[in-house]
Amino acid sequence: MKNDSRFYRCKTLQEALYHLKNVNNLKVYSGGTSIKTDSNPNRLDIGDDCLFLTNCEELKRIEKHERYITFGSSVTLQKILDLGKSKIPDFLYEAIETVANPIIRSRATLAGNLCSKDFYHTLYSPLLAIDTRVEIHTPTETKQVPLSKFNGIENGQIMTTLRVPLIEWDIAHFTRLGFNNEICDVSSSFTFLAKTQKDSLTDIRIAFCGKIKIRSTELENSILGAHLPLSHKNINMTLDKASKIYDAEIENMIKKSLMENPNAEMNQELIQKIENAKKNYHPMIKEQFLNLLRMNLEKLM
Ligand SMILES: Cc1cc2nc3c(=O)[nH]c(=O)nc-3n(C[C@H](O)[C@H](O)[C@H](O)COP(=O)(O)OP(=O)(O)OC[C@H]3O[C@@H](n4cnc5c(N)ncnc54)[C@H](O)[C@@H]3O)c2cc1C
Q1: CA gap 253, 251 in Å, rounded
Q2: pLDDT of 54 higher than 60
Q3: Which one of 25, 64, 145, 249 is most buried, by most CB atoms within 10 A?
């Protein structure tokens, strides 16, 4: 931690926004469980001035409505589990249970899980699949964004609320790859939701998150409305599409991060960099994504 880092706390959102307006590069934390120690285990690796939302009562609210439930960004994962399994979608409940351990869950939040940089954490895929909407505040504006359009939190923004739809699914499956209770390089999470009516598939959601984030309307629409039971041909076509979408997503992500470097150009050097960067995405993870997708599609046979 740099010696002159300053810590801010707030009791109200208004106070939080005041600090955000007046302090440059203020880093916002909800539970703060992502903060690591640096090479000296007695020091926190924080860097910038930071604002902790932990004491902000209005961000600790949970409001249950008929079709959705809202969580303030300071609601801890443990508080959500304490609501009981019947109050939130089962697959989300199960996903939260796999995050870290009870001590960490008593501080960690959904907002922190979604706003973490450079990695889509365990709860991203269930919240993305279910079309969660997040509310983002800056000192001058408030906006509600579907998670599918959320491109990460920017400097000067606070995620204040998450609105989670409550929908009944005929098939709801969450699973994670890598170890439970910790995040490592190969950690990923997969969520599959499907609704059926008589002999057709009326809704389907597929989300896979980790180093990359996949939720594709093109993929979902390609099978939406399909006649049930699904045929082998239908499943193979969907897997083929999923495989192409996965590869394209990796390529896009790598290109985007390389293009953010102002010196990068689409030339031989950049192409080589893309090929090298692809090695960071272990092919085993793609295989597992496709296996999980196949396994869930086969439930519709
Ligand atoms: C031992 C251990 C095990 C873990 N296991 C898991 C695991 O299994 N799965 C998993 O997903 N994670 C795991 N984590 C990581 C972390 O605990 C979780 O991702 C947690 O949900 C983060 O929530 P938080 O509120 O503590 O986030 P914070 O640490 O407060 O913040 C995380 C990031 O989000 C930003 N941020 C937080 N809140 C806001 C906000 N309201 N507005 C704007 N930006 C914000 C912060 O600036 C930071 O960049 C683990 C951590 C530890 C220490």
Answers
A1: 5
A2: yes
A3: 249
* Cα–Cα distance measured from residue 192 to residue 223, given in angstroms and rounded to the nearest whole number: 13
d(CA 268, CA 261): 16
If one residue of 29, 60, 142 were mutated to test the ligand 1 pocket, choosing by the most ligand atoms within 8 A of its CB, it would be: 29
Q: Which two tokens stand for residue 129?
A: 């699949």
Q: Please give the distance, rounded to the nearest whole angstrom, from the Cα atom of residue 107 to the centre of ligand 1.
A: 9
Give me the residue spans of the domains in the chain: 7-165, 171-300
Q: Do domains 7-165 and 171-300 have the same CATH topology?
A: no
Q: 259 CA distance to ligand 1 centroid (A)?
A: 27
Distance CA 143, CA 101 (A): 33
State how far the Cα of 271 lies from the Cα of 282, in Å rounded to an integer: 19
Assigned CATH class of 171-300: alpha beta
CATH topology of domain 7-165: 3.30.465
Task: Please say whether the beta carbons of 205 and 178 come within 8 A.
Answer: no
- What's the pLDDT at 42? 60
Q: Is the pTM of this model over 0.70?
A: yes
Residue nearest atom 37 of ligand 1, based on CA coordinates: 112
Positions of E strands within 147-231: 158-165, 171-177, 188-197, 200-209, 213-214
